[in-house]
Design brief:
Blueprint: E1 2-11, E2 14-24, E3 28-33, H1 40-47, E4 55-60, E5 63-64, H2 69-73, E6 76-79, H3 91-101, H4 106-119, H5 135-147, E7 153-157, H6 165-180, E8 184-188, H7 192-198, E9 201-206, E10 209-214, H8 216-223, H9 228-236
Parallel strand pairs: 3-8, 3-9, 6-7, 7-8
Antiparallel strand pairs: 1-2, 1-4, 4-5, 9-10
Length: 244
């Protein structure tokens, strides 16, 4: 579980994140939804300790991520907005490297790697160097690397961005599997269909603040729109809804 309390992050005179508070529960999928520049990625970066908040508190399974960032990282699996893959390593080497950093070795690491390769349909690329991978292949490698240690809490920044249809389905299946196994999954996305299909709770962020939260049905009811996209436009104040 992740609990965020009154989170703030400023860049000069810009309040990128301005008093964000929410709880992402175990055994559920929570979505961060907002327009570009709303503060989603900045919020995620603070949650996985890449950035330090100016104010506020982040608890990852009751570990204070500001006071003990290393302890918080042990509880997390992260797919960031930039994959940061090493071009001269293969996908298998990336997965093994991150598994070993988490203390996984031998047969256990090999079995976990093979399971992820199968789930993400990576058989044809797993022993090729990352240099020359497509965007989708890089994303799948970064996702496998992020969850090889079976973390309790999984943070995903635009996990299906750039993926083809079958790869997108594989990522969605993994998210559902993680939820069924009791993990906490928190992800950002611009894809309304994806958010509606996967999320138990949607947190809508605009201009660094939470403007609404609830289930997809809650947001539709709150705005009076049957279409989640129309509800999103209304909640964020992005423009006039012409149809519903």
């Amino acid at each position: 579980m992740i609990r965020v309390e009154n989170l703030h992050k400023r860049f000069g005179n810009v309040n990128a994140v301005d008093g964000v508070s929410f709880t992402a529960a175990d055994g559920s999928v929570t979505g961060l939804l907002g327009p570009n520049g709303a503060g989603k990625t900045t919020t995620l970066r603070m949650l996985y300790t890449l950035m330090r908040p100016d104010d506020g508190r982040i608890l990852v399974d009751e570990v204070d991520a500001v006071a003990d960032p290393e302890g918080a990282r042990r509880q997390l699996g992260v797919l960031p907005d930039q994959s940061g893959l090493y071009p001269r390593l293969t996908a298998r080497e990336h997965i093994h490297y991150f598994g070993e950093l988490q203390g996984i070795t031998g047969r256990d690491l090999a079995d976990r790697t093979n399971d992820l390769v199968k789930m993400l349909d990576m058989t044809d690329i797993v022993d090729r160097r990352v240099a020359g991978y497509s965007h989708g292949e890089r994303t799948k490698t970064a996702l496998a690397r992020a969850i090889v240690h079976n973390p309790r809490n999984v943070l995903l920044d635009e996990p299906t961005n750039g993926l083809d249809v079958m790869s997108t389905r594989a990522v969605r299946d993994i998210i559902r599997r993680l939820k069924a196994e009791g993990h906490m999954v928190l992800f950002s996305s611009h894809v309304m269909q994806e958010v509606s299909a996967l999320c138990d709770t949607i947190i809508v962020i605009a201009r660094g603040r939470i403007v609404a939260s609830g289930s997809p049905d809650d947001l539709r009811a709150q705005t009076g729109h049957q279409n989640l996209e129309d509800a999103f436009v209304t909640l964020t104040g992005l423009g006039e809804v012409t149809s519903s």
